[in-house]
Design brief:
Blueprint: H1 6-9, H2 20-29, H3 41-59, H4 64-80, H5 89-97, H6 102-114, H7 121-140, E1 146-155, E2 166-169, H8 171-176, E3 192-204, E4 211-218, H9 244-259, E5 264-267, H10 274-283, E6 287-289
Parallel strand pairs: 1-5, 5-6
Antiparallel strand pairs: 1-3, 2-3, 3-4
Helix pairs in contact: 2-4, 3-4, 3-7, 4-5, 4-6, 5-6, 9-10
């Protein structure tokens, strides 16, 4: 995004629009996603059920062209991005507006990302409200609800200038350097690469697909601030520079306020310990923790 100047982003995309409100309805309801024909009806209905409430909320204060860009942007990422294949900004522009109009699609994405009329918190709020509605439906059907907590890292070993990068422990380096028969190497220190810390909470029941209740990304150290985050002044500290414990405690408080005692929180061994047990007891949460046998209770 740093390659785009202000004069680049103000250029509007030509379009013949008679009534903006009518155009929004066509964007939301006329199936302009160009969904592949091999997608089944239930999958397409699930897509509209998930994404359209968010688009309608954004349409209340966001330009209709940006709302359409969000829809096509998410669809392109879901369709073309996978573990071994990332997407460049120019590629996304080609998927949004077609190969012949890739620069125009890139400009649309730039306008979307630079817009000050919306924030990422709106997506977090939408995911939370959707999970609460699914949970209420599970309660009406007397189904047990579980909140699965999963924490990991996103490794970006080739990136240097992206915002939010901090050192993360590389599980891939650990896996490929594992001792194999006939190829012994002395064990060395862990390998750290640039990346992002990631935490997700999934709502799941006895039947049906899991629902994303929350997802957080953060960094523990900035390249411009090699010291700990607590040593920085509040004005110079970016909002993504946080500790994992603070992020988890904030998310636990939010989940306990939304779901109260109607769910059971499920944690892996990374959450086994006195500080986290005290936090769960303080909020009165029902939980299951995979406990390490080396930790005495």
């Amino acid at each position: 995004m740093s390659d785009f100047g202000k004069e680049t982003c103000v250029t509007a995309i030509p379009a013949t629009v008679a009534d903006p409100s009518q155009q929004v309805e066509s964007i939301l309801d006329a199936h302009l996603l160009n969904v592949p024909v091999d997608l089944s009806g239930p999958l397409e209905n699930s897509w509209h059920e998930l994404i359209h409430p968010l688009l309608r909320r954004l349409d209340e204060h966001l330009d209709c062209r940006l709302v359409a860009t969000i829809e096509r942007f998410i669809h392109a990422v879901l369709q073309f991005r996978h573990r071994s294949c990332g997407l460049l900004l120019s590629e996304l522009g080609a998927y949004i507006c077609g190969p012949d109009h890739a620069p125009a699609g890139t400009k649309r994405l730039s306008n979307l990302f630079r817009s000050s009329k919306w924030k990422s918190e709106e997506i977090d709020r939408h995911l939370c409200l959707h999970a609460v509605s699914v949970w209420e439906e599970m309660v009406r059907h007397q189904q047990d609800a579980l909140l699965l907590w999963d924490e990991s890292v996103l490794e970006k070993p080739e990136s240097q200038k992206s915002e939010g990068l901090s050192p993360v422990r590389s599980s891939k380096a650990k896996r490929i350097s594992r001792i194999k028969p006939g190829y012994y190497r002395p064990p060395g220190p862990p390998v750290f690469v640039p990346g992002l810390n990631w935490l997700a909470v999934l709502l799941i029941g006895r039947s049906g697909p899991p629902t994303v209740a929350a997802m957080r990304w953060w960094g523990t150290r900035s390249s411009d601030q090699p010291t700990q985050a607590s040593d920085s002044t509040p004005d110079s500290t970016p909002d993504w520079l946080r500790s994992g414990r603070d992020v988890a405690l904030e998310l636990l408080k939010q989940c306990c306020e939304r779901f109260e005692l109607g769910v059971i929180h499920v944690f892996d061994r990374g959450y086994a310990g006195s500080p986290w047990l005290q936090a769960l007891d303080r909020y009165g949460a029902r939980f299951i923790v995979r406990w390490s046998k080396y930790y005495p209770l």
